[in-house]
Amino acid sequence: MNDLATPRLSPATLSALADIVGAERVLTDAESAAHYGRDWTRFHTPTPSAVLLPGSIEEVQDIVRLAAREGLAIVPSGGRTGLSAGAVAANGELVIALDRLSSIADFNPVERTVRCGAGVITEQLQQFAEGQGLYYPVDFASAGSSQIGGNISTNAGGIKVIRHGMTRDWVAGLKLVTGTGELLDLNRGLVKNNAGYDLRQLVIGAEGTLGIVVEATMALARPPQDPAVLVLGVPDMGAIMQVLAAYQAKMDLQAFEFFSELALQKVVEHQGLQRPFETPAEYYALLEFEQLTGADMEQAMALFEHCVEQGWVVDGVASQSVAQAESLWRLREDISETISRWTPYKNDISTTVAKVPDFLSEVEQVVNGAYPDFEIVWFGHIGDGNVHLNVLKPDDLPVDEFKQRCGEVSQWVFEIVQRYGGSVSAEHGVGLLKKDYLPYSRSELEIDLMRQIKRAFDPAGIMNPGKIFDA
Fold first, then answer.
1. Which of 67, 153, 229, 372 is 20–30 Å from 193 (CA)?
2. Tens digits of per-residue pLDDT, 383-420?
């Protein structure tokens, strides 16, 4: 394999790194750079100076201390499933891949917690919980490859936020290696702890800019009982919110997702799935609820009939088995994988739930006017106010030109976000892709305070520099 062309570390530095992790775990080849040096985004070329695979917290600390002494920038790398270029090493950084920190230990059945290394795959934690008769509810399409450390660093959300919240709601404690190589053990699994600032919550969602999450104590819950799924065809965005209000008034929903007709067409065509029903609709809502008693499905169907009578729903289908529920979920969950072949330009935006119809109407008007020749795919977690706008790149359009055109319109979209008091990044993080737009969601004072916090954790400025904001 070819060594990286730029930049190169000195032989002395490479030797020192090899002394820490072993020579076979200091990777400087082009294949490793491409694999470990970026996330799911494809707008930056990865150029790490080396990829390191530590096997312990102590090794991570030793790497960071060396990097701080020599002024070497670090990019933490988890499952590399991020969508904001937060894990991209585009400027010769050292990549610290946490894959080998993958232990699951110290299960506490009383507290319903378990200790996980940062490299534990989300799906592995879900399976472990299931084996204990419990449930880890943070779930999303990349659960089979994303890692707990990365989930914490981006405060991952997903499809069950309406009922179970974000990743931060399930982190009972965490260990962080700071930019000076010190180890912080934050909260230690305590349920109640008002002894000063909760630094754990600062770290969650910080995208590796304050340090490297190396371990976490994760909380678990009881599993949902006999979940059922409805997919409903809805004529417009206003109707979706009426459906949400009707169901939430009578039932506790596990999930309330939406996707557009074009999203459905892409998934059906490329994943070999069946349409949920023949009647086409502008949008589709996917609802999940528990069947705690035999009356729950009856209630759901009565609400369905009410929504049809009101003109809010044009057709629908309810799962009759676990297999059918999984198939219906694929209509929503397979969208990201399906559209990835078009190198989509993603906007992950949010506002308060009540404002979504007007918010989305304004955004659609701007986007459709600016991109008459582009395909636009909508989907998202509309039950918590989060929608994903995906502009698909035409096959004959160069990536740089596509990104430039999309960036121009993003500013107009974010001006709408700002007027609605929303967020330019609901759950994907800021990374490199959204940092120029951070002022649309955060005040100048907030950003200045963030910089001061970063300097406290990372005085040398080596931890994931250039992400979220420039120091």
1. 153
2. 999 999 999 999 999 989 998 999 888 999 999 999 99
Backbone φ, ψ for residue 81 (5° rounding): -105, 10
Domain span at 234: 227-336
Q: Are residues 262 and 313 in the same domain?
A: yes
DSSP-derived secondary structure letter, 466: T
Residue 420 is part of a domain; what is its CATH number?
3.30.70.2740
Residues 426 and 364 in one domain: yes
Mean pLDDT for the chain overall: 95
Contacts of 169 (CB under 8 A, 6+ apart): none
- pLDDT tens digit sequence for 284-304: 999 999 999 989 999 999 999
Residue listed under structure tokens 């590796």: 208
pLDDT tens string 245-293:
999 999 999 999 999 999 999 999 999 999 999 999 999 999 999 999 9
The pTM (predicted TM-score) of the whole model is 0.93
From 53, 68, 97, the end of a domain falls on 97
Interval 47-82: pLDDT, tens: 999 999 999 999 999 999 999 999 999 999 999 999
The residues that bridge with 260 in the sheet, in sequence order, are 283
2 confidence band (pLDDT: 50, 70, 90): very low
Domain C-terminal end among 289, 313, 336: 336
SS (HEC) of 1-55: CCECCCCCCCHHHHHHHHHHHCHHHEECEHHHHHHHCCCCCCCCCCCCCEEECCC
Closest CA to 357 of 287, 264, 420, 310: 420
pLDDT of amino acid 7: 56
Question: Which of 248, 244, 252, 272 shows the shortest CA–CA distance to 337?
Answer: 272
Q: How many Å apart are CA 385 and CA 69, to the nearest integer?
A: 44
Report the residue count for the chain: 471
User: Is 256 part of any domain?
Assistant: yes
Rounded to whole angstroms, the Cα distance separating 178 from 462 reads 10
